[in-house]
Amino acid sequence: MGTRRSGAALIACVASYSIVLGGAYAALAVDLAARGFGARDVAINAAMTPLGLFVAALVLPRLVRGAVFPWLAAALAATTLVMLGLAFTRSYAAWLGLRFMLGLSANALFVVAESALMIAIPERSSGRFLSLYNGVVTGGYALGPLILAIAPMRTPTALAAGAAMVALSAIPLVAGVPRRALTLPPLDVGSGLAVFALAAPALVVGSAAVAIFDNAALALFPVFVMESGHGRDVALVLLAALLAGATVLQWPIGAVADRWSSLGMLRCCAVVTVACCMALPAVAPVPAALAVLGFVAGGTAFGAYSMILALVKERFATSALVTANAALGVTWGLGAMVGVPVVGAGMDTAGPLLFGPLAAVPFLVLLALSLAPISGRAAEAGDGRSR
């Protein structure tokens, strides 16, 4: 019961945190655009957060160890201060530095929380718990902008409210995460980022594939819909359908994986995502068909990431969990920074209907690499078993 309580506390903390980040990203972009900054300036400002995520992922494996509670509390405190800094300054240059720091603190929380969750949850229900976690994160990012749309407020007010909500995210930690009992072991010798990538290429490529899908869906799926002859409101509704699938389908995907196979479900998610993306151009004139395909593709694309997390827990020693989650963060950042501009350039060159096929390509690579062994070690050092 204690491990389940810790797992629930970690998920509740990250849920609140994700809502704040989703709302902050939207508020900052809208504010810059309203102040007359062009798309390039807005994009450069937004890119500072994934740059911070990337840098944090490189250094975290060498730093994070011991009790998880102080690390999580420090990440929440740092994010609260950064959000307050964003709220009380209007300088574009200051926002660049603060958004970089936001990426650092956010990835510290996500890497530590994901690693702690993998330690805390029971092996027999890892697929369901990690899928629930992934769905919560996705839902939080979608809910943040929706809250701003329903209850509009000035950007400084929204960011200050976000800072307060991040601080309140510490409540589930205090209530459910033990101060000393839940710990991360020291880094194993020979378990660096490159070692993990070589041991599990499908997992790191899969992380990049989902990152490309996620960011391309948010930025370019509405463009594809509108260029297919539909209005802005239809595009937003269809994007909401895609995000709804990414949220609500995670639990059933995880439940099936727990009864069957995380690796088998990863392959199924990749196949279904490819099929749905490839079919998008054919049904582009029909909003209802786009809604169904978007809902399913959103669920299976993010379901692939849920299965990646489950496979990390199943196949790798606890001493390698921080490294594994940091490696996923590195490739997620690279996928978001490099892959999405490639998709956009392809749409500019060959037409918006190419959105679906381009989004499918990384999942084809994932599917091919998933046929290779994932050569992790036993989940507990010295237990003599390989999972």
What do you see in this structure?
- The structure is a single chain.
- The protein has helices spanning 2-34, 39-63, 68-87, 92-120, 126-150, 155-168, 170-176, 193-199, 201-227, 232-248, 250-259, 262-283, 287-315, 321-350, 355-369, and strands spanning 66-67, 183-184.
- It is mainly α and 387 residues long.
- The chain folds into 2 domains: 1-184, Up-down Bundle (Growth Hormone, Chain: A); 188-375, MFS general substrate transporter like domains (Growth Hormone, Chain: A).
- It has a two-stranded antiparallel ribbon.
- The longest helix has 33 residues, at 2-34.
- The radius of gyration is 20 Å and the shape is globular.
- The two termini are 24 Å apart.
Please give the structural blueprint.
Blueprint lengths: L1 H33 L4 H25 L2 E2 H20 L4 H29 L5 H25 L4 H14 L1 H7 L6 E2 L8 H7 L1 H27 L4 H17 L1 H10 L2 H22 L3 H29 L5 H30 L4 H15 L18
Antiparallel strand pairs: 1-2
